Amino acid sequence: MELEPELEPELEPEPELELDNITMLKEKHIYIINFDGDKFVDKLIKFWTRGIFSHSAVLFPDWTFLEIYPPRQTRWKYTTIVTNHQKSDLITVFDINTEDSYDDIKKMYDTLIVGKKYDWIGIIGFVLRLKKGQRNGYFCSEGSIIPLYLYYHWTRINPEYVSPEHLVELLSVNYEKSKEIFSGTIEQFMIQFGGQKYGS
Does residue 178 lie in a domain region? Predict the structure, then answer.
């Protein structure tokens, strides 16, 4: 008696991404991305700042990504969002409406932030609450907010003491130009906002 071959179970097709659910990044808006990292340095930063966020960076509407991420990257430069991060990393994203001043603020990022070194001394000053003095570099959350701080005269804050956790708090409650638009993984963010081609 011949045994009938076992049939392999049919795999259900993966659901297609509904294009109607994609929200593109807005032109002339700047996006501040805050990371909930789990590496040793991330945990150390969370311990120092007593928060859940360990890193901040800047994203522009064309998916150009600006960050500093030591020890892998010790100068501020343009990369992609996945150059130093995994698609599974958790992030919270804020949309800053800079339509009235985008070109000027973008130029400030280019002239004041790009190429600057990571400010290790500034980190020590941050922990000990010491004034840094002349700015020869910036740590992540400081550099992410400096151009916005200068252009909009956000006098209620001192960027030298703004941790990633503090930055999220500021953008959440204090500034009418900013709003939280996403919380989840990098991969989910790229799918939802049409950035899949920038993730390879």
Answer: yes
Q: Does residue 4 belong to any structural domain of this protein?
A: no
Q: CA geometry: angle at 199 spanning 65 and 55, to 5°?
A: 45
Distance, in Å, from the CA atom of 70 to the CA atom of 130, rounded to the nearest integer, reads: 22
Rounded Cα distance, 148 and 125, in Å: 22
Distance CA 152, CA 148 (A): 6
C-alpha–C-alpha distance, residues 13 and 4, integer Å = 26
pLDDT one-digit tens code per residue, 116-173: 999 887 777 666 666 655 567 899 999 999 999 999 888 778 888 899 999 999 898 7
Report d(CA 116, CA 111) in Å as an integer. Answer: 10
Question: Global pTM?
Answer: 0.85
Place of tokens 């990369």: 79
Residue 9: inside a domain:
no
Task: Identify whether 15 is part of a domain.
Answer: no
Q: Which domain holds residue 48?
A: 22-198
- Mean pLDDT is lowest, of 25-34, 36-45, 122-131, 155-164, for 122-131
What is the total count of domains within the chain? 1
